[in-house]
């Protein structure tokens, strides 16, 4: 699955806006997508480092229009926690040399609410 097929739309609610300061972003995602696929898609699309992905299956609501009763479709919601303070990481390579890994990650998703 392509990254564009996994992430469908951002979910903008009062609760999701409050969680933005903690680095948590909420997305409507494909129902068949796994947590690993969602994390890779967010990292690819927005160039951020994903720390954690929580998913919720949301059941559709019963709706009524006049005499007819129907149901909205079920969907999947993903709450993605990103690294708000990306730092350089060091580790020991062969020969005992210190090696630094410093990938350029952003600390927020600017495109989330159309900014």
Write the layout of secondary structure elements.
Layout: H1 3-6, E1 7-10, H2 14-18, E2 24-29, H3 35-46, E3 50-58, E4 62-65, E5 68-71, E6 75-82, E7 89-92, E8 98-101
Antiparallel strand pairs: 1-2, 2-6, 3-6, 4-5, 7-8
- Lateral arrangement of strands in the main beta sheet: 1-2-6-3
Cα separation of the termini? 27 Å
CATH class: Alpha Beta
Report the average pLDDT across residues: 89
Question: Can you summarize this structure?
Answer:
The chain is an alpha+beta fold.
Give an account of the 3D structure.
This protein has 115 residues and is an alpha+beta fold. The chain has one domain (3-101): 2-Layer Sandwich (Alpha-Beta Plaits), CATH 3.30.70. The protein has three helices and eight strands; from the N terminus they run H-E-H-E-H-E-E-E-E-E-E. The protein has helices at residues 3-6, 14-18, 35-46; strands at residues 7-10, 24-29, 50-58, 62-65, 68-71, 75-82, 89-92, 98-101. The strands form three sheets. It has a four-stranded antiparallel sheet with strand order 1-2-6-3. It has a two-stranded antiparallel sheet with strand order 4-5. A hairpin with a 5-residue loop joins strand 7 and strand 8 (98-101). The radius of gyration is 18 Å and the shape is elongated. The chain starts with a helix and ends in a 14-residue tail after the last strand. The model has no long low-confidence stretch (mean pLDDT 89).
């Amino acid at each position: 699955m392509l990254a564009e097929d996994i992430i469908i739309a951002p979910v903008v609610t009062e609760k999701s806006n409050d969680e933005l300061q903690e680095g948590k972003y909420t997305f409507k995602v494909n129902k068949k997508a796994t947590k690993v696929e969602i994390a890779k898609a967010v990292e690819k699309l927005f160039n951020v480092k994903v720390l954690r992905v929580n998913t919720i299956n949301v059941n559709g609501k019963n709706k009524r229009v006049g005499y007819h009763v129907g149901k909205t479709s079920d969907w999947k919601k993903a709450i993605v926690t990103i690294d708000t303070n990306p730092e350089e990481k060091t580790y020991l390579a062969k020969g005992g040399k210190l090696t630094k890994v410093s990938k350029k990650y952003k600390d927020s998703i600017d495109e989330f609410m159309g900014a």
